[in-house]
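Shift notes (night). Ran Oxidized purine nucleoside triphosphate hydrolase while the centrifuge was going.
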Amino acid sequence: MRDTSLVFPISITGDILLGKKKRGFGVGKWNGFGGKLEGSESYLACAIREVKEEVGLHVTPEELVLYGILFFEFQNNRDWNHKGYVYIATSFQGTPIESEEMLPQWFALDAIPYTYMWKADRIWLPHVLAREKVSGTILFSANGEELLKTDLKYTNT
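Came back to this:
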């Protein structure tokens, strides 16, 4: 199982920045910004690096708040299984820029394009955006298109 970080930047006006994946795992889907840990990198260091690489924003460890630890499992496809640390950044520096991997766009919280995201996102992301901590397991079909099961716990912070 690989380890990943995922960051959802939130603007001062309360909008969420998502990126449309242009290549690789999850191509065509809207998501936060993140990816796999490299070497002995920490989850936090990975989150900072990935946000810089994918959308050009600078975040510091103090600007990231951990709201989720999720295990994403794919039936009969272990190569895609991963544990993800989910962060919100309400403070950051820079202007979002398109990268080779992601096309960024701001969305109002009531206009998040859940139809074009991973199917489980509509279940757990609203809790994270409400500043609830989430943990648990999400099981997808082998190709990731069907949500088979969720076992999630939420706690208020």
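The first helix runs from residue 43 to 55. The helical segments are 43-55, 121-129.
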